[in-house]
Design goal:
Helix content is about 35%, strand content about 20%. The protein has helices at about 1-10, 20-25, 35-40, 55, 65, 75-85, 135-140, 150-160, 180-185, 200-210, 230-245, 290-310; strands at about 30, 50, 90-95, 100, 105, 110-115, 125-130, 145-150, 165-170, 210-215, 220-225, 260-265, 270-275. It has a 4-stranded antiparallel beta sheet with strand order 11-3-12-13.
Length: about 300
């Protein structure tokens, strides 16, 4: 593990972190410094790791960052965990197809939802629920810290009410939230966001234990699946639960929806993952870029190049 971290540090300038486990397997034999081993030199220094002579004379390895070849989910976790010098968050990024071919190529609306991961790692959240009667009792029993009706809305509007990370509401309370719409802004409960429901007990439980995720207009979805100190089995379970939650938003179940999966941590670049290594048999969606999008990207790149030249 120590030699792998040294090699990761040496490879950091090239961002070729995926090579670390591969190079680390060669770190046995004669004593040669890490950077010297990478350059082919045989001079020794105190900060050295062992590399066999055959590794020094071996032909250069084509970098994964050059080939953009996906690697297995297990190998991607090995890379991120080896590179972590402290407990870091392991994140997952998915790209989904935003065009539903079975609905006459109609563009999908961006969506957001919540997933309860099997292995929890984040601190508990503070919730406010707008409800009355039996629904308020259900929310309190589920663990909501603050529950109330019109009185609670008035307190928040006056600036004397509690604050929270997440705001939920019963359907009959939505119209009562207009006075605090500008205060809550993006946190305002809405049916489309999944923060309004008649059964508040399960909703509160899912938001307390779950993790929110949002699909951007370009189809990218990002979320955290655990810490680098987790076992591979725990991270794999969380990743599968997250992918299944995303698949539940597919407008045409069974049709290709997910185009790519990649992993990254706080200090690393994205590692493209072979989707079959995580969910065998998962159909892969193809993302097609329109001519207008290509033209806009070329124009943007030209502007960047001109600014850099000036």
């Amino acid at each position: 593990a120590y030699s792998t971290r040294l090699l990761c540090a040496a490879l950091r300038p090239t961002k070729s972190f995926a090579l670390a486990p591969l190079v680390a397997t060669r770190a046995f034999g004669s004593t040669v410094p890490v950077r010297a081993a990478l350059s082919g030199s045989t001079s020794a220094t105190p900060a050295a790791v062992s590399v066999p002579p055959a590794a020094v004379d071996a032909p250069p390895i084509k970098l994964l960052s050059d080939t953009h070849a996906p690697i297995s989910f297990d190998l991607a976790l090995s890379v991120l965990q080896a590179f972590a010098i402290r407990p870091e968050t392991i994140n997952i990024q998915l790209q989904v197809a935003m065009v539903d071919k079975e609905s006459k190529s109609k563009k999908r609306d961006a969506f957001q939802s919540v997933v309860v991961l099997p292995h929890q790692f984040k601190e508990s959240k503070n919730l406010i629920v707008f409800a009355t009667g039996q629904q308020a009792k259900e929310a309190k029993d589920a663990g909501a810290q603050h529950v109330g009706g019109v009185e609670l809305v008035q307190q928040i509007a006056a600036g004397t009410g509690p604050k929270a990370d997440i705001y939920l509401a019963a359907p009959d309370m939505v119209k009562e939230l207009r006075p605090i719409a500008k205060i809550l802004q993006k946190n305002l409960p809405a049916l489309k966001k999944g923060t309004v429901a008649p059964e508040l007990g399960p909703l509160v439980t899912s938001f307390l234990r779950g993790q929110q995720f949002k699909c951007q207009d370009n189809g990218f979805i990002r979320a955290s699946i655990g810490l680098s100190t987790f076992t591979k089995a725990q991270l794999t379970d969380n990743a599968k639960a997250f992918v299944q939650a995303v698949l539940s938003n597919n407008l045409s179940p069974g049709s290709p929806f997910i185009a790519s999966i990649s992993l990254y941590s706080d200090q690393s670049s994205n590692q493209l993952v072979d989707t079959s290594s995580l969910l065998p048999g998962l159909p892969i969606a193809k993302i097609t870029v329109s001519a207008a999008a290509k033209k806009a990207k070329a124009k943007k790149d030209a502007k960047k190049a001109a600014a850099k030249k000036n």
